[in-house]
Design brief:
- With about 200 residues, the chain is an all-alpha fold.
- The protein contains 8 helices and no strands.
- Helix 2 runs parallel beside helix 8, helix 3 packs across helix 5 and helix 5 packs antiparallel against helix 6.
- The longest helix is centred in the N-terminal third of the chain and has 34 residues.
């Protein structure tokens, strides 16, 4: 645990920030925790794509709304900080390592999921798209490893604050419903979209 705490580049952010800043942090962390679970499932299908190709595609579809909201909450913090919002300025910037890794995480995430969507539509037998998807996965994995190590200690505790009766604050219920809603939206989108994908023999 000591090693993990040293690796956590967000562990310094233990002071009480403004409610808006804390709410954004809680929602971002909760989304990150859900993503970690789903990405672990998605990653577990890669060595067995021959048997688990359907699972890989479906979980990828479920991930899309959650990833989009996570990018949204992160960009919101970025925008508020760099437009000199007082509360976000007082909370301080991310750790320098996270500031460097952040753009790479965003770019590789967009490339990975965009190529994955195209691949789901045209089929994995499209060599160009398949190569782009594989290359973006490798780049994403490297960037995401840095990102995860940078938040590995703080994410679980921050993510659970809105679900703790002791640590709830105004907006906690909204964030709970948002987290549940975006997860259900991902499941619903997958249930609707997957049967319509012609590349998978449903169209």
């Amino acid at each position: 645990m000591t090693l993990l705490r040293r690796l956590d580049l967000d562990a310094h952010a233990d002071e009480a920030p403004a409610p808006g800043v804390e709410g954004n942090r809680r929602l971002t962390a909760a989304l990150g925790a859900v993503l970690l679970v789903l990405l672990a499932i998605e990653g577990g299908t890669i060595p067995f794509l021959g048997q688990l190709e359907v699972v890989h595609v479906v979980v990828g579809l479920v991930l899309i709304p959650i990833v989009l909201l996570k990018l949204g909450t992160t960009f919101y913090r970025f925008a508020r900080y760099y437009t000199a919002d007082r509360d976000y300025r007082q909370a301080g910037p991310p750790h320098p390592v996270m500031r460097v890794a952040g753009p790479f995480v965003v770019v590789t995430t967009v490339a990975l999921f965009a190529s994955g969507v195209v691949l789901a539509i045209v089929g994995r037998h499209s060599p160009t798209v398949y190569t782009i998807h594989k290359a973006s996965f490798i780049a994403w994995f490297v960037a995401m490893t840095v990102h995860v190590l940078g938040h590995v200690w703080s994410t679980p505790s921050v993510a659970m604050r809105d679900w703790s009766a002791v640590q709830r604050m105004p907006g906690s219920r909204v964030r709970q419903l948002t987290l549940v809603g975006v997860t259900l939206a991902g499941l619903g989108a997958a249930a609707i979209v997957y049967p319509l994908l012609p590349a998978w023999g449903h169209g």
